[in-house]
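Give me structure tokens for this 148-residue protein.
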Amino acid sequence: MIQTGKRRLMSEINVVPYIDVMLVLLIIFMITAPLLTQGINVDLPKASAQPVAADSAEPLVLSIDKDGKFYLNVGDKNDAAIDDATLVERASAVIRRNPQIQVLVKADQAVPYGRVVLGGSLLTQAGAQKMGLLTDPSGAPGKQPRRR
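Here you go.
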């Protein structure tokens, strides 16, 4: 017997392969994201302070290690020490692109206060209007650990 009716085209999308690809990408990103976090090891001073409201953009962070060397979290080599002129140049370029960016200073507790002030002064020269200091609230004096 010969069929005389018209065939209807199937217009459904098979989403199963797309879901598989999405899950694989999700797993890859979950594994690689913690590995991408780089920084300078700094022993932050202990202090109890209110946390800064997180913006969607990554803040501009000036790190000062125990030897007093400056590091900035922008550029191709975040783990390479930079001099004063390079610090001002890179920070001003970032601040010009995004004037509302958070500017934070992360200094080792063994660094002389004058070096931290110099870093803040260089960031001010670069155009930073407000700056914050990063501290480690976990061992702040006068703050008792929570008991469960």
